[in-house]
Hints:
Blueprint: H1 2-20, E1 30-36, E2 43-47, H2 50-55, E3 64-66, E4 75-79, E5 83-89, E6 92-98, E7 104-109, E8 116-123, E9 127-137, E10 144-155, E11 162-163, E12 165-171, E13 175-180, E14 192-203, E15 208-211, E16 214-220, E17 225-231, E18 239-246, E19 251-260, E20 264-269, E21 277-282, E22 286-297, E23 303-306, E24 308-310, E25 320-326, E26 335-342, E27 345-350, E28 356-360, H3 372-375, E29 384-389, E30 393-394, H4 408-411, H5 413-442
Parallel strand pairs: 2-29
Antiparallel strand pairs: 1-28, 1-29, 1-30, 2-27, 3-28, 4-27, 5-14, 6-7, 7-13, 8-12, 8-14, 9-10, 9-13, 10-11, 15-26, 16-17, 17-25, 18-24, 18-26, 19-22, 19-25, 20-21, 22-23
Amino acid sequence: MRKLKILVIVLLMAGTANNVCAIDLTQWKYRAAVTFEGNVNEYCKLKLTPEIYDAASTTLDDIRLVDEDGEQIPYVLIKNEDSTNEYECRPRIINRATNDAKMSFVTLDFAKKTVKNSLEVVTAGSNFRRAVKVEGSNDNVEFFTLAEGAFIFAVGDEEDSRFSKVDLPMNDYRYLRITVEPMTTEDESPVIKEVKAFKIKKKVGRRELVEMPVVEQTEDAESNSSIYVYDLANKHLPISEIELDIVDESFYRYVTLYGRDSATRKVKLDSEDNRARFREVEVRWQRIMSGTIYRFTNADGEKCEKLVLRIRPGGRVYRYLKLAIKNYDDRPVVIKSVWAKMITHELVFAAKETGAVLYAGSELAKKPLYDLRHRLREPEQVKATVATLGPIMDNPLFGQTEDKDIPWTERHKGLLAIIMAAIVLGVGGFILKSLKSTQSEQE
């Protein structure tokens, strides 16, 4: 019992030392007022604005909420991201065949009724566009159409230039029959190397539109490509996809997306004197992703299209984006508009009726660790008051030096923390030594 009391005392003193290390607002470049709407609940939820992504670090670790007394307000950072749970099924391939039209067939046997909604049809070759048909059956005699007019593509040998997935309606057929049609230029039947089946469950996060005004458009005759450059106005936005609005009714194009945060950067030059000299050099475009866009009408009159470029989750997105559309020998497509979609982060925090201030833009700040993340197991589901973020402004305290009017304890927080920690260790050691001495006397 006595040991427990000693432990409580030491922990309380350690907590006091930790609280002394309050936030030093002179290290943050930007600030924005946080206000609330309506009656305030126990918690508030604040959606980050595009300007915050530009002002904060790429990891958002330097974001801080501060109340009117200058104390930090603990928060949990959440993002309602897309989620995909994928379960692979391993069927047995039976009944390989071809016909006079050079079509290739395989039948998949799952051994029993198995729920699935996606296939990956891997065929030989490095540059093709082949139609795929999928049919389902429970007796391997009578088949029903699940997908028709789907296509698989390849535009190179690289893994990310092959597109072999075929979406299906959710089904539990024991047998699936896959038909792959050759291109008109192919002399042989396509070789179906492998077929994988999946059950995929997807949860789609809420998206917000981001305007992408075009700042430059050119035609590259050497590569037969249309080049578009866009300005998102802010850096580090959590863009999940780019959607194109194209006028043409029938097309197929391979596109590559690049990014950079500025057109040029300064490079310091060596000089004989002490004067600083610089020259401007162009910043190279960084490849973000590649993919295909298309629109066509199949034999049944059904319109098929793909006009969305999906960006890998967690992938970096720059302020300036360049879209290179490979036209091959076709004329350029006409792009009406382009929009980006982002999944915005939110802060969930304990409500303060007097409001709060959000700070961002510190190069020294590390990720904060609050116990709120342990107490709120499902912060996305918590009932919270909507908080609104005001415009981003310069922090007037940023970079300020010591002020004589500031108390010594505020001007020397680091030193005071060390002193308090030393006191805690000293007092704790003294108490433990006394305890051992008392126990020795009692024995």
